[in-house]
Amino acid sequence: MLYLKSTHSFILLIILTSCFFSLQIAAEEEDSIYEKRMALYKKTEALTQIPWYYIAAVDQYERQIYKDIEDNQVISIRIEPTLWFGAGNDSNTLNAIELFNGIGKDGNGDHKANLKDGEDVLLTMASYLQEFGHTEEDIKIGLWNYYKRDLTVQTIKNTARVFKKYNDIYLTDRDFPVAINYNYSYRNTWGDRRGFGGNRIHEGTDIFADYGTPVKSTTYGVVELKGWNLYGGWRIGIRDIYNIYHYYAHLSGYEEGVKVGQIVKPGDVIGSVGSTGYGPPGTSGKFPPHLHYGMYKDNGYSEWSFDPYPYLRKWERMAKSN
Ligand SMILES: [Zn+2]
């Protein structure tokens, strides 16, 4: 019996140890992909004088819009083959690309512009932007010429500002949107029918709490919208560095100084819980105080609502363990 017991604990020890090491390996791999990316962004900056945080923000933006990105894929920017090679050309030699007015460049020094090579792709993108100049305004114009979509340009510009401010691309912290040392309750109400304003479905999770409970940013991002709307009352919208728009509604008020364009991090207080909305500006008290929290994903073409509940559960656990 004793023998069995110790065998068991020995096996358990082996299992635990190997779990610990595989977790550690996974974490180290994650660290190293961020390090690899950062090294490539900085190298591209050195070659083009386009600041690394813009190059990083373009890559980050594109990583969110494709469904078939591999976990270990270092660079995610994809450039149209016709633009890369030049119309009518399919050779990746620099001479041919130049002859056919393609934009493909050789970043890794193999004398070929390879559409699938991260360094070649980064140098090509940064060289494209460089044509428009190096100031913030020039880069904005370059991005607009490339993507031809205002929201895309704004998302990339704001992500670049976040990367620059924190001097990092490894920004994976999260927080729960309501201060967890206050009383609150929530359940999954996503998709429920809503009476006010016709047949709407409920695009978010309601977190019930007392008036004045602090409301916090859940992510790194930039304040995109602030003010009154008919349903949401006093609300605030923050777009994070993953092309996700976070919508906080029914606030009783805003934290002092919060304004559109401001960079926020997880845990920054942005306002407090209230019951505003369902009427003209200032309408309040038509329902119990709660935070309505919604999440919207943008894929470069359109935006859609998805269920924030599983994320809230996860961030609540993260907040409690901190
Ligand atoms: Zn709601």
Automatic annotation (TrEMBL):
Pfam family, one: Peptidase_M23
Annotated signal sequence range: 1-27
M23ase beta-sheet core domain boundaries: 201-299
Gene Ontology MF annotations: hydrolase activity
Keywords: Hydrolase, Signal
EC number(s) given by UniProt: 3.4.-.-
Source organism superkingdom: Bacteria
The keyword Hydrolase belongs to this UniProt entry's keyword annotation: yes
InterPro entries found in the cross-reference section: Cell_wall_metabolism_enzyme, Dup_hybrid_motif, M23ase_b-sheet_dom
PANTHER family assigned to the protein according to its UniProt record, in alphabetical order: L-ALA--D-GLU ENDOPEPTIDASE, PEPTIDASE-RELATED
Protein name: M23 family metallopeptidase
